[in-house]
Write a structure and sequence with these properties.
Blueprint lengths: L1 H46 L1 H7 L1 H36 L3 E7 L2 E6 L2 E6 L7 E6 L12 H25 L4 H21 L8 H10 L1 H18 L13 H5 L5 H16 L3 H14 L5 H18 L3 H15 L6 H14 L3 H15 L5 H17 L10
Antiparallel strand pairs: 1-2, 1-4, 2-3
Length: 397
Amino acid sequence: MEKKMEKTSKRERREKRAKLQKAAFSFAAFLFMMVCGLVGGYLIGHLNKEAFHSRGLSVVLFSTAALLCVMGLEWLLHMYFHEVGHLLFGLASGYCFQSIRFGSLMIAKGADGLKIKRYTLAGTGGQCLMLPPKEDAQGNYPTELYNWGGCLMNLAVSALCFAGWLCIGKESVPAICLLLGGLLGIGTALMNGIPLSSLANDGYNAIILRKSKEARMAFRYQLLMNDEMLQGKRLSELPEEWFALGKTCRMDNALTTSAVVLCFSRLLEMRQFEEAGKLGQHILDESEELANVHELMIRAELLFMEILRCEETAKVKQMYERDKKKLMVLKNMPSMQRILYAYYLCIEKDEKKAEQAKTQFEKLAKHYPNPAELTDERELLELAGERAGKPDSSAEV
């Protein structure tokens, strides 16, 4: 009983911390955008006060719409600058290019060269993944500049914007755009640099990597695995020693927990569903820190394994209803459409909705960057069809 209570409290503490971080992050982002809007609105109003008096509401509405468009565009540009910062500082630290993603647009280096793909990861506006340099004799390798590079780039662009604002005069439309660009750059740097364990953002990763040798090992292996999978290899084909850490490490930070999550994914790929189910539940119960996207992925796969087992339909429906709102964050990933296909086909017996999920799966698969992962997804899709008595359910590879 005590052990069960300890597990529950550990899980509850993590989930409570994640909710608080999410609420604080959302409030801070809203507050910062509101401040930027007020500053920009005041300056535009001051610049066009005569027009406001003569033309009234139409000028106010037009100026407000223009201000919001400028802020949105500058925010988007800073997200792009952020990823380029990771790339440049990573290259300066000896890393090699793997992939860079802006929104859902991804440029990835595979076995046959650079390809443009589509990929969306919940909770991120972009991502730059690189192959780390060799370790030194003590097993260390540079991590600071690669992780802080995005924030440093945002701050550098902000400094240029503020310099331009001061140089061209404070009361002009270009000057206001530069001022807002500087403020938004600082906001982007802060939101990525202030450590948040539930997001495993840049600031969090940089600090944990500095403190923990296990985290540095986990981070390195994760990047190495990503590179191999972009070349077409599956998790089951990778060296066993790359997964040894995930079998022994403490799940006291999101990076070491990610090593255990990779072991879970490998068991799933090897169709060792019973072991995968136990490990997945163990991660949810025992991890002190777990990235939101990993928690959602584990919940989704536990649901899928229950669907395949199909022993208690009521239990599966209860799991789905409990988690479906959260899991829809993953709807742009083939794995989630595969799980929806299995649920509608095996549990709801709704072939129309199952076909819709399968169609969406194929749409996402066309531009998916990871060929090894996609091969596994198709096999699992076929397995779900077989369990439902539809052996021809998989699409042609």
